[in-house]
Each structure stands twice: as structure tokens, then as C-alpha cells.
Design brief:
The complex is a heterodimer.
Chain A: H1 6-16, H2 20-32, E1 47-51, E2 60-66, E3 73-79, H3 85-98, H4 103-107, H5 113-118, H6 132-150
Antiparallel strand pairs in A: 1-2, 2-3
Helix pairs in contact in A: 1-3, 2-3
Chain B: E1 14-15, H1 17-22, E2 29-33, H2 40-43, E3 50-51, H3 69-78, E4 86-90, H4 96-107, E5 113-116, H5 119-125, H6 150-153, E6 154-155, H7 157-165, E7 170-172, H8 176-180, E8 204-205, H9 221-231, E9 239-243, H10 248-260, E10 265-269, H11 272-276
Parallel strand pairs in B: 1-5, 2-3, 2-4, 4-5, 6-10, 7-8, 7-9, 9-10
Helix pairs in contact in B: 4-10
Classes of the chains: A alpha+beta, B alpha/beta.
Chain lengths: ~160, ~290
């Protein structure tokens, strides 16, 4: 059974066996779509976390809404202008791949999908911030789950 | 206000965005983009520019070292660079990687090298055109360099240790927090695997950033001279070693001291803090 949500698995399947050049072209296409992941007029969120950490080159804003019915997450992300292209691409991929999953499912996503998508050649020391956005999304889910527990709204186990 | 480039020691080594625009079709010029953001070139670049990847193209894949002279000749040949081609480097991060690539080209004896002042950001800020179309480059012959000029412009751990022991000039170009040992990574960057913080004993802190204006262009000759010769008390004929974490920010300073100020012997310690800060029994100072 796949450890990834179905939508993310589809993206992994798309990338995993692509030749290097096609990987790059698809990553650029995803990076171009990053502005579409920003919050839209009228949207409301359960949690907004906008900050500039030392681990990333610019401000990243994570906006999380969780459907009270099916507990499906909806992420919106804002990225400062200095954020690298690979991180922009990963932002689009993660929003598309994780939206609709439960917060618990997001928390359990292993990071090993990143090299499958990006390819060994592009994963290097100075591009480790590709992992940063996932970490921030998981952090938002964790906060939301803790709040849910604190407010006695735990899901049926 | 920035002085005219003609007042630098080697004014020909620095070209403006206007100069590059005017030489886009010059067959004797090859424009080279080199970035930290490894996909940035693919998102758009100066028309006709080729991409040199600081790691994939210039570094040995197995050993922590640069490529062989044979591989360098291949890199040049496939990018349409002949031995007499004028290479104009530009890139992101105020030209860190452009200077790193230029320094590496100099390791192989390619001397026709220039930097586009202000780098990619200035080109974009001026509204100049970028394209995603990769240039159709006809391969050319590049004779295999006889040797790599490591001894002239590159310093190794042992050289740096000797420099430190002898009290010769050592310039640490990292941020003040990295120099003092307060942090072991660049601000805004992930930890890159360094076990100890601090600096090489005797090194003085002159962060690379002090050499550039807000827009990434180089400061004037007088301002730079005041920085290195005045505050830093480094003389033109001193034997100088510069270092950072992995050698890219110090390439920037190497370019400033060598080309813009005309220092005669500056070597870049590319092993830098990721080697020194991990080396067993390497002496370290803090504060």
C-alpha cells in the first residue's frame, strides 16, 4: 500500500521515471503554478502561519482549512520572492498532492518522495529547502490536531 | 554613488548590463549563467546564455575536488567556448556562483573572463528580456589544459593552517554570526553538516556583503580599498587566503580583491569551513 495520499502518489508516478530534462520541464511547470496556491478572496482558514525562518531564504505563509465533515485539509501557501524555484515547484506539488487528505495522513507522509520527484541530480546540499514546505505543512496539521484534542473534538477512533 | 568601473584595477573584468545587451550576438563572447537556484536558468535566462552548473559541471562527482582538465575541455567544447572566447559570467545571489565559476575557469587557465555587474537581479530589475529558449550551440575545439592552476589561486587545508600559524592575512567572508561561532550555518540556510563553529585562528572578518551595494553591484574602488586595505590592513603584495563555507562567497571576495583591487596573490580556500570546522584537531577561535 502506498504511504502517500493518492493524489501525491499520482504525481510521484508521473515524475519517477521521467528523463532528467523532462523532470526539469515539469518542475518548472509546477513552479509556474505556485501563485495559484495562494489564498483567494473570501477564503477562511482554521490556521494561518506566516513567518520567515532561518532555514528558508524568504517568508513562507501556510494557511490551513480543515473540512469539519470529512476532516479533509485545504492548504494555501504564500512564498516570498527569494524562495528558490525547486521549493516553488514542491509547493504546488504538495498543495495538489495533499489537499483532501486528513491532517493525520499529512503528518504520516514520508519525505522519501522528494528525490523520486526531483531526481538525484537536483537534490543537493543547497536545495534542501525542498523539504521545508512539507515540514511547515506538517507543523500546521500538528497544531490543528492539538487544538482539536484540546477542544474535545477528537475524531472517532 | 558607484564610481565608473574604469577606476578599478582591472576595469575590463567588469561589464555592465548594457554592455552585455550590446554583445548578445558577439561570436567572440559567451554569456554564462551560474546560479545557486538550480532551476533558475530553466525559468528564463539572457538570450544566448549557456548554463554552467557549479556542481554538476565543475565539481568531480566522486572526490571533493574540481573536474579534470579533460572534463573542463569537454564542458567548454559543448558550450561553444573556445580558448579565446570571452566568458561573461552572471547569476543569482549577487553573482556568488558567477564568481565561483569564473574562479574555476581561471583554475584551468582560461583568462578571458568577465562578470556582469549586478548579476541576474539587475538584469531583471531593468526589465531586460529573458528567454526560456536554450541556445543552439555548435561545439568547438577546446584544447585540454596542461594542468590546473591550483597553486596560484587555490588554497588547501595545509596552506591555510600554515597561513594561520605564520600570522599571514586570512579573510573570513562569512556573516558575523558564523565567524564568531554563534551559528554554524548561513542565516537563511539549512545546517550543512559542520560540527564546530568559529573561525580559523588569526582570520579577520570581512563579510562578502560589505563589497556590494544594495542592488548587488560592486562598491567603488575607493570604498573597497578602504575596506580591505584600510580597515583590513591588507597590502597589495600580501599573500592572502579567503574562505567561507564551501568557497562560493569567498570566490566573490577573491574576484573583488584580485580583479577590482589588483591584489597580486589571493588564494581561495574552497574547502572552507565545511572542511576546517570538521577537521580533527583543526585549531578554532571563537568570538
Amino acid at each position: 500500500m502506498s504511504p502517500y495520499p493518492a493524489a501525491l502518489q499520482e504525481i510521484v508516478d508521473l515524475f519517477e521515471f521521467l528523463p532528467e530534462q523532462e523532470k526539469r520541464e515539469n518542475l518548472i511547470a509546477y513552479a509556474d503554478q505556485a501563485p495559484r496556491q495562494e489564498p483567494r478572496d473570501g477564503e477562511t482558514f482554521n490556521l494561518e502561519d506566516v513567518r520567515k525562518d532561518e532555514e528558508c531564504t524568504d517568508t513562507v505563509g501556510v494557511y490551513l482549512a480543515v473540512d469539519p465533515g470529512n476532516r479533509g485539509v485545504r492548504f494555501r501557501i504564500t512564498l516570498g520572492p527569494q524562495v528558490q524555484t525547486l521549493t516553488r515547484a514542491m509547493t504546488s506539488i504538495l498543495c495538489q498532492g495533499l489537499n483532501g487528505s486528513t491532517p493525520e495522513a499529512v503528518l504520516s507522509v514520508p519525505q522519501d518522495f522528494v528525490p523520486k520527484i526531483v531526481g538525484g541530480e537536483l537534490v543537493r546540499q543547497r536545495s534542501q529547502t525542498v523539504y521545508y514546505v512539507l515540514t511547515r505543512m506538517k507543523s500546521a496539521c500538528k497544531v490543528w490536531i492539538n487544538r482539536e484534542r484540546a477542544e474535545g473534538r477528537q475524531p472517532d477512533s | 554613488m558607484t564610481e565608473k568601473p574604469s577606476s578599478y584595477a582591472n576595469p575590463d573584468a567588469l561589464v555592465s548590463t548594457e554592455w552585455v545587451q550590446a554583445h548578445l550576438s558577439d561570436p567572440e563572447v559567451r554569456i554564462i549563467e551560474s546560479n545557486e537556484d538550480i532551476l533558475l536558468y530553466d525559468t528564463g535566462h539572457i538570450a544566448g546564455a549557456v548554463h554552467i552548473d557549479w556542481r554538476a559541471d565543475l565539481q568531480d562527482d566522486l572526490v571533493r575536488d574540481y573536474i579534470s582538465p579533460e572534463s573542463f575541455a569537454e564542458v567548454c567544447a559543448r558550450n561553444g567556448i573556445g580558448p579565446d572566447t570571452t566568458c561573461v559570467f552572471y547569476g543569482d545571489k549577487s553573482n556568488w556562483w558567477a564568481c565561483y565559476a569564473l574562479w574555476t575557469f581561471r583554475l584551468f587557465g582560461h583568462t578571458q573572463v568577465k562578470v556582469m555587474n549586478g548579476g541576474r537581479d539587475k538584469w531583471v530589475a531593468e526589465g531586460r528580456e529573458l528567454t526560456r529558449e536554450k541556445p543552439q550551440v555548435s561545439p568547438v575545439e577546446y584544447p585540454v589544459p596542461e594542468y590546473r592552476h591550483d597553486e596560484e589561486i587555490r588554497a588547501f587545508y595545509a596552506d591555510t593552517l600554515l597561513q594561520s600559524s605564520n600570522g599571514e592575512p586570512l579573510v573570513d567572508v562569512r556573516s558575523p554570526g558564523e565567524f564568531s561561532g554563534e551559528i554554524t550555518h548561513m542565516p537563511e540556510y539549512p545546517q550543512e553538516g559542520v560540527l564546530r563553529g568559529g573561525h580559523v585562528p588569526g582570520a579577520q572578518s570581512i563579510p562578502w556583503k560589505m563589497a556590494v551595494e544594495e542592488d548587488g553591484t560592486f562598491k567603488s574602488f575607493n570604498d573597497l580599498m578602504a575596506l580591505y586595505n584600510g580597515d583590513g590592513d591588507i597590502k597589495e603584495n600580501d599573500d592572502v587566503i579567503v574562505y567561507c563555507r564551501i568557497g562560493e562567497r569567498s570566490s566573490h571576495t577573491w574576484f573583488v580583491m584580485t580583479y577590482l583591487l589588483g591584489y597580486n596573490k589571493v588564494r581561495n580556500y574552497d574547502g572552507s569551513w565545511t572542511e576546517w570546522g570538521n577537521m580533527v584537531r583543526a585549531p578554532i577561535e571563537r568570538g
